[in-house]
């Protein structure tokens, strides 16, 4: 039964908006991200006798076919927000190991089917996922919660020191219809 077909519970003074299904019973997302080319894979951690093991990326998941050219980590202090940034040629693959972050995306590619779309995903160790962000999609990160967040990025092309593939906008730019701050 869809949320639109559900009746207001008898005796309630307000209707509100009922939740819609977002995942299957196996915790697989119902809907693809709203931005063309963005891939997400929610990952299950495996309990071991000493803690948990969490895979971050496997080529057989089929998220993309590009190589991993560099892996780096970034820490984000509680409450910190990055500016918006995009790449002309590099593909990001983001995974939050510690803490919790909100990844916000904006499709600035004029030729894209989802041009102008905004999409968000909250990820961290309690809800592990890898988010694949193609070139031309603007993205920004907000650290949520009281602890420092640790973010891994498995890019397809290593950072070029002489000619960085980074384009930046401030977190509160008027060029993107969402303020990161």
From TrEMBL:
It comes from the Bacteria. It holds the Pfam family dTDP_sugar_isom. It is an enzyme of class 5 (isomerase). Its EC number is 5.1.3.13. PANTHER family: DTDP-6-DEOXY-D-GLUCOSE-3,5 EPIMERASE, THYMIDINE DIPHOSPHO-4-KETO-RHAMNOSE 3,5-EPIMERASE. Catalyzes the epimerization of the C3' and C5'positions of dTDP-6-deoxy-D-xylo-4-hexulose, forming dTDP-6-deoxy-L-lyxo-4-hexulose. This is dTDP-4-dehydrorhamnose 3,5-epimerase. It comes from Mesorhizobium shangrilense.
């Amino acid at each position: 039964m869809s949320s639109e077909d559900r009746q207001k519970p008898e005796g309630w003074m307000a209707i509100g908006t009922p939740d819609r299904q977002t995942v299957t019973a196996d915790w697989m997302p119902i809907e693809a991200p709203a931005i063309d080319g963005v891939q997400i894979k929610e990952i299950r951690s495996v309990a071991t006798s000493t803690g948990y093991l969490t895979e971050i990326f496997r080529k057989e998941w089929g998220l993309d076919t590009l190589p991993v050219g560099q892996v780096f980590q970034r820490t984000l202090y509680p409450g910190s927000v990055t500016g918006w940034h995009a790449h002309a040629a590099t593909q990001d693959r983001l995974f939050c190991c510690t803490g919790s972050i909100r990844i916000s995306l904006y499709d600035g590619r004029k030729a894209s089917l989802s041009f102008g779309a905004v999409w968000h995903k909250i990820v961290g160790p309690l809800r592990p996922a890898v988010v694949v962000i193609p070139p031309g999609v603007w993205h920004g990160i907000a650290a949520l919660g009281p602890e420092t967040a640790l973010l891994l990025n498995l890019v397809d092309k290593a950072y070029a020191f002489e000619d960085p593939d980074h384009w930046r906008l401030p977190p509160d730019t008027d060029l993107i219809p969402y303020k990161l701050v």
